[in-house]
Design goal:
The complex is a heterodimer of chains A (321) and B (319). Chain A has 321 residues and is of the alpha+beta class. Chain A has nine helices and twelve strands. In chain A, strand 11 and strand 12 form a beta hairpin. The relative contact order of chain A is 0.15. With 319 residues, chain B is of the alpha/beta class. In chain B, strand 8 and strand 9 form a beta hairpin. The mean pLDDT of chain B is 91. Classes of the chains: A alpha+beta (321), B alpha/beta (319). At the A-B interface, strand 2, strand 4, strand 5, helix 2 and helix 4 of A face strand 10 and helix 9 of B.
Chain lengths: 321, 319
Amino acid sequence: MGTLGRTRPTTLACGEVRTCLLPTSQALDLRAAGHVLRLRADERVLASERPNLYALSPDTLMGVDCALPASNGAKVRAVGTVVARAALTEGRVLQAGSFFRVPDTGPDQRQPWGHYLVRPGVVEPLGKLPAQAVAEGLLKGGRPGELDPGLIAEGLLTRLLRHPLLDQKSPFKSRRTRLRWVALPVPDGHGPSIDFTVAEDDLRTVRLGIPEGTDQTAVVRLCEDLALHDWLLTTLVRMLDGSRFGSADGPMAVLALRPAVDHLMHLWMPRARVDRKLSALWEALEERPGFSRQWHTLVQRIRDQMALQAIPLLREALTAR
Amino acid sequence: MTDAVFRETAAEPLTRSLPLSHLSLELGHLYMEDFEGGPERLRRHFESVKPWAEAARADATARAGGKRPRISTCFLIDDYFTRFSTPAEVVPVLLAEAERAGLVIDYLARESGCAVADKVPLAESVAGRLVESPPPGSYGLRPPVGQTGWLANGVRTPALRAQAMRRSGAWQPPQETAAHRHSVFLDVELWDDKDGHRTWSCPFLAAVWQLTRLGLLRNEGEPVFVARAHSSGGFPSEWDQLAPLLQLNATAAPFNAYRTCSVLPSRFLPVEHAVRIILDQTEVDAGALRQVAERSDREGVAVPDSVADRASYVFYPGW
């Protein structure tokens, strides 16, 4: 028939990524990562070793039939499937995400379920989609009973964190972050745009403007990459926050930073798997607020403090001769 | 501008494609009781199947758009729920009776192959692909079907305890999600677990059987339930020594097909209703689905979007 999975053009894509430290004393190798992320018996976990160790689970689906949140209070019922998947970077940072896209209009009535299953990751509105209002609503978060991609991401994360291969011994304390995103198409001739907001404590919202015809997987990967690096930065900032380097207990403060050296500092690698067409968005964030600039400053600070603490030790060693 | 290409094969998904017929025509299921009924029972079965098989061929020809349709026939033997006799004894009788009715069995399948075929746990894989049809009001918070082993086509009657907490206490009817005004509610048992051993239900294995015939399953991108050619010798004395899928006719059209048609006695109707409910809630391999769509498009053959709609049946009167 050739119409398989064919839907109206996407006007809105949305998702949420939850990022956390994998609760294991040792980072997992790719083999072990393959076991943890094997969400389906018959599908491979995709594994990549360049430019860093990265494993990606197969996509799984969750069926939904509920209202979409809308900032103007419009009632929009939508039916379809939301994709959930997980990724592990360097065997250390676990991400569980969910995402879906919405066409501008859908059938007036709910279709047989088979119609939705051959359109994985598409949630169709019943009737016309008020795209702007729904984008706002999704970013703000809906009311109970409205579609919540965060809930689906959290469900997957909870399931993964129970895996028997995880010894539940985290090498240091850290918090989860949530990155919620929506993408809307930009008019012809316009380049992509990004609006990154550090909302509450652990919530970031990202609003993307995407040229039409951009591969949705590329958008999802960009958001996963943003979430990963935002988590790294957030975690390192928190580690250094309140450190008393110059004081009498300076040596202890520096020792407390050791997990950063052991587990975090080698993970910074923005755009490792981001589509070239979208890397301009990363560059914009590098310009302002300057993610990498802040990261490198923090890392340099840790290294300087470590070096400072090493000098007295060196002196002791020399005088002891 | 310098262009560099770097690839890692383990980092890219892959789905191997399969040759496809227009129609996979199933000429029957054989259970122990059928075999115990002697060759006469098989003879009656094939005599009943014959006219409907002809009709299915005629229908496939009409749908092929003027071209000669590729049609393969198959037959399923139950060696999963009961082990009876031996292939050496059963298969020659079966083939002789089919031939007497003027029917050719191209492929012979064992039902236990739908559970595990060539060490690939097909049934378990399909169980991991169930995506429940969400009743209205589902916003992403549902326990996976994997925990219960039951799959319904709607919302069950609330449990009595939950009802006791309602003030009215009145009985609540179940509700079929895709009901046309009135519900036909069905709840399907997919498996049971006893002493650490899982037994898949007959409808669940029959759903796996349909999905393999439709060429919509893969294992890590590779084809599953692959036919092996039958050597000219006889048949083994153990079912396990028989390939899960055996190609008996060397010149047969491909086993996998755009559509399936099964000619069965009417007692199979409830089982096949359950099969439809399972097919309607199974997310098949995305790569395989795409390949079938592209190929049928090139050939100008209409294939329904919905997987459940690709299976059709003829129920002939009888038991």
